[in-house]
Amino acid sequence: MADSSPSTSGTATPIKDSTTSSHSVPITAVTSAPPPPTGPTSDPEKKAGAPPAYSAFSPWRRRFILIVVTVAGCFGPLAGNIYLPSLPVLEQEFHASATAINATVSVFMLTFAVGPLFWASFADWKGRRPLYIISISIYIVANILLAAVPANYGALVFLRIVQAFGSAAVVSMGAGTVADVTPPKERAFAMSIFLLGPQLGPVLGPVIGGALTIASWRWIFGFLGERSHAYPVPNSPSANIVKIAIAGFALWVVIILMLPETLRARVGSGKLYAESGFILFPLKLSSSLAPESERGPPPPKPTLLGYWRLFSYPPIGIVTFNTAMLYSTYFAIAVQLPTELATRYNWSSAGVGAGFLAVGVAMIVGSMAGGRFSDWRRARAVKASPDNHVDPENRLADQIWGVFVCAGGCVMYGWFVDASLHPAAVLVATFLSESCPPCLSAKLPVFLFFFVLFSAGFGMNWVFVATTAFLTECVAQQAAGAFALGNMLRNPGAAIAALVIPSLVTKMGSGWCFTGLALLDLVLVGSAVMVLRIKSPGWRAARKARMAAMAAAKPAGQK
Known about the structure:
The chain is mostly helical and about 550 residues long. It has helices at about 30, 60-80, 85-95, 100-125, 130-150, 155-180, 185-195, 195-215, 220, 235-260, 265, 270-275, 305-310, 315-345, 350-355, 355-385, 400-420, 425-435, 445-475, 480-485, 490-510, 510-555. Helix 3 packs across helix 4 and helix 14 packs antiparallel against helix 22. Keywords: Membrane, Transmembrane, Transmembrane helix.
């Protein structure tokens, strides 16, 4: 498997990222002291004689691609969480126990965790566009069947698996698409925007699902339509199906008509599409190949051994573990929060759903701030480097600040819940309660919970942005696969947290339970970040030497 360092963009020489080309620096800059100015710009990655631009797409075209994949990335998490408020109703409708209905959530999460490994490996090999079209088609069909079939538990489980499998593709492929069109110097901020889709889905899902369930749970999937007298809906089954599937279908049409192929191993920097209009015509499932001289090096064929080689590279394995730990911490708070708000403070269902909007705000701020900071830090490192070369592991040191913030929010949540109100929170809550709706008033610690949720969500996303940028730069030829691998343990970790946290809170109390979880994050994740800072240069050098030896040992002409 060919090595892809951060400075390699996964492209052939004519379109290689300028950070890798030390020969592009003018000779006068080497033989004279101090170096002559290269122009009004101080960007060391835009020196005279630099290779062509990383992407031939215009800035507006790149923004459009980013918007499309961000919206697409929201669909899977939204589908996984939108029917959570209707679980009690589903128990009655399907005549199933709470455990059985909760299993439909678990199978969705597990499929959503493993599915991207399949899709991403082929997306890195054969292209993004055809797999977008195929996977979203599966997602739409699954939604239509979920809306149309009778209340059969076996069908529900099977179709939830199909729904998760179809929607799982767009998250990992979206990260690969962003990496295809965004140079490394801007990648963390672009990734911070893209991550808003997958991460706001779980936040918006319960809010939207709760609002739909007020009318009828069928507004979520359209089960049984008007056939149930217990939950009548004034719309026909076909009308409900159209309402459910229309968003996915609209996205599918946009992708077919407007989303070009971006895989650099097929189209290079995108010159094939750069001069064309937004509407792709004639319509094709696949794409034409760029001239071989403009294409990036082909990635290895997808195999389990290839994934193992990626995972066994210590930085990738470590950030995969870090991501799972912090997401599990956030999910532990998210699972326990509705119970605390409902039992301790008598919040209504609508109020609990609105409380999760604080997490959404935190994710937006954490992503945007973390992305800007990571790109700024990388630019400083490039400027300080004599050859304008920066390893992708440079981004991982940024994680430590997010770990501290997330752990702090976790501790505050536990003890503030046990203590009910902090004096400062009472004063602020009194002011806020005057303008809050009834479900949020009555001396509730509004500021307290919003602040705690903000801390946890902000810290988590700060880490995720740096991690995602690292993964796509570390193995540029397999950006989608690396992202899928890096997020593989998130959902299993969240499932474990949801299983054990309620019993731990009952036995230990919220304060000690979440303090222990925060200490676990600080010790394990914090130590891992420090190890990465110290050991990453040696690991990267060893990997480069190993990959070079493997490439030299291959017979001539073998890929």
